[in-house]
């Protein structure tokens, strides 16, 4: 029941039309619920310290991939890129928050391109 309500959030709306969603939910149900809850409590965005003041010090190249339908995290990625000179954003059209699952081929292509440019 938790997974259904979790993925019913507007953030995951694009994911609901992906054919592999049933398989994703099946795999997620095999996870330990206590471990997942602990993960959310200790590593969720509400528990993480703010590192905005440290972004300018990042020396390594960073790719921030977001889905265009994920307006909130696309905005945050752009703000990060403004604060971090080595960060680059790429927005994948037609995708939401789970772009690696919604469009794995485009996700992988973007990561490969980024890595090739760094050789």
TrEMBL record:
Q: Do the record's keywords include Lyase?
A: yes
Write down the InterPro entries for this protein, in alphabetical order.
AB_hydrolase_1, AB_hydrolase_fold
Q: Which GO terms describe its molecular function?
A: lyase activity
Per UniProt, which keywords does this protein have?
Answer: Lyase
Top-level taxon: Bacteria
Residue ranges occupied by any AB hydrolase-1 domain in the UniProt entry = 27-110
Q: What is this protein called?
A: 2-succinyl-6-hydroxy-2, 4-cyclohexadiene-1-carboxylate synthase
